[in-house]
Amino acid sequence: MSSRFAPHPTRTTVRGGETNIPRGTPRQNTAAATRTWKPPAPLNLSLTLGPLRRGPADPTFRTTPDGSVWRATRTPQGPATLRVALRAGEAEAEAWGPGADWALDGLPDLLGARDTPEDFEPRHRLVAQTERRRQGLRLLRTGLVMETLIPSILEQKVTTDEAFRAWRLLVRKYGEPAPGPTPAQARMHVMPDPRTWSRIPSWEWHKAGVDNKRASTILRAARVAPRLEEAAAMDPVAARARLELIPGIGPWTSAETVQRSNGAPDEVTVGDLHLPGIIGYALAGDRTADDTRMLELLAPYEGQRHRAARLILLSGHTPPRRAPRMRKGNIAAL
């Protein structure tokens, strides 16, 4: 492991749940592997890990009142539950399940160890102000493709509420309970493995509000999941090309995936219904901007365009809404 990630990582095994778990968390007689890591710069945990959350009721992601972030994930070594908290400038992590060691090994990357915010130079006042207000934002890298690819496919051409509902229903029904203790009443689940995704009956997709096009794309991806997971170790451009070989996965979905799996600071989401107008309005007062105009405005940030876009979204400076919201569909009622 590179010394710039963790000069002296600490990892122990704690029996009987005797760890710094918040009060109210169910205790189980399981082993928790632990690790501490000191970030090289200030870290905002919620800003950094927030992109992994798919809605307030995401069964794979929880936050607790003490500021801890809980994450249920499927690693190459198996399911894992990871809890991360910041204490006195250090990240303290605990993990349970067969994939616990893998999750802890990836902790620095998850918290942005490979990110280079020092390479970012704000070119607009709004971006500079937001960067100052949102200190500690780092671009995460999960090293996992399918756990981001599948919810991104579910978000194609529908409202976020519809996509979040589908993800929640399918993970709860076909995933498995997260290993170890989890926050009280959280009912956390690890997403299904590729084989399980491929065996979900057509009527269950329908009940979750997922049309045949998106379901078919997920099934195609599940059949070649090992090859897609290899993309996490690729250059972001090559990773996107690998993902886009699957019919139904285009530039929007591949960008949304590699931003999280590969920690890609320059991959911009094109084909989004709202993002070009938000970027155009924030940087040039142009609420009618399309993808071409958005990329022109982000050109001064080449190499860090995704970071610039995230800061603009975090600024809250969005154009007044004139057009009606996207209509919600309900194919389950058809």
From TrEMBL:
| Name listed for the protein in its UniProt record | 3-methyladenine DNA glycosylase
Q: Provide the residue span(s) of the region labelled Disordered.
A: 1-32
One example of a Gene Ontology biological process annotation: base-excision repair, AP site formation
Highest taxon of source: Bacteria
Entry-linked InterPro entries? Alkylbase_DNA_Glycosylase/TA, DNA_glycosylase
Q: Where are the transmembrane segments?
A: none
Keyword annotations: DNA damage, DNA repair
Do you know which PANTHER family this protein is assigned to? Answer: DNA GLYCOSYLASE (PTHR43003:SF6), DNA-3-METHYLADENINE GLYCOSYLASE (PTHR43003)
What does UniProt list as this organism's lineage? Bacteria, Bacillati, Actinomycetota, Actinomycetes, Kitasatosporales
Q: Name one GO cellular component term.
A: cytoplasm
Signal peptide boundaries: none
